[in-house]
Amino acid sequence: MNGQITSDPLSVLEHLATARNTGSCALVVLVSVEGPASRSPGTLMAVRDNGEYVGSLSNGCLESDVVSQALETMATHQVRRIRYGAGSDYLDIQLPCGGAVDLMIIPDPSPTWLDRAMTCLHNRKRWDLDLRDLLPEKLALAEPYPRIQYQPRLQLAICGRGTEPMALAHLAQSSGFGVKVYLPGSEEVARLAAQGIAAEIISPTAFDGASLDNRTAFVAMFHDHDYEIPILAKALASNAFYIGAMGSHRTHEARLAALRNLGHNTAELNRIHGPIGLVGPMKDPQRLAISVLAEILGEESPQIQTV
What we know:
It is a single chain. Helix 1 packs antiparallel against helix 3 and helix 5 packs across helix 10. This protein is α/β, with parallel strands linked by helices. It is elongated. Strands 1-4-3-2-6-5 form a 6-stranded mixed sheet, with helices on both faces. Helices cover 36% and strands 24% of the residues. It folds into 2 domains: 148 residues, no CATH class; 151 residues, Rossmann fold.
């Protein structure tokens, strides 16, 4: 049994769509949680008919049995609801945290439904899951299921030059962020592109902040701080949930003064984190990257919510 651990809903849906095109599959939804648990309601998992899965519903306590249950639903074409933990019929499967979880296993969700869900998240729009759309009428009417809202994947846009943006880009990508790096030099762009990280050449006047939505963090990492001012001005006009800029306290004061001279008010300037990082000051690029990513995650709103 091969598994890929991810908490990203879009990755799970993409795996389902691929599996649906070649065979049978099942979507597993964590419907509810009682007491302590390692995952939140709305967490998704995809299971293929060969036993491969993408997603994670626990810290390894449940996945093997969930795969077996999912394979049975594919054979019977019947939706199945399962409870693990306190009050479960599966007494041999215990949750060390002491809580309980309820799962819904839905075999072969329709391609139309999958396309609609993936389109929302690909277009960086919120996707609302109403479980009743996937359940037989009798089961759909049996209880008031929560509606689950999924936000797009976190994105990180980095503008800069040198080793710092490189280190942050690699750490963010390995942590599940969508990453885009904007660099002044073609050699750095080619190096990142060869490593599978999206990058493009920019100039201060050419940078467009329109793609910085409310699930995107923006970080400026320049040593030439005059270069960053027009770029930061465009970032301030965006909906980015986090804006940060590298440099000392003195540099940050000069940065704010320059932006103030361009007409930005105090509320706008207060959006800029500087010096960046949860812990500082950091001179090492890798440690700075860890510190910055920690600060960004501290500002993030939940990706999955039940309403």
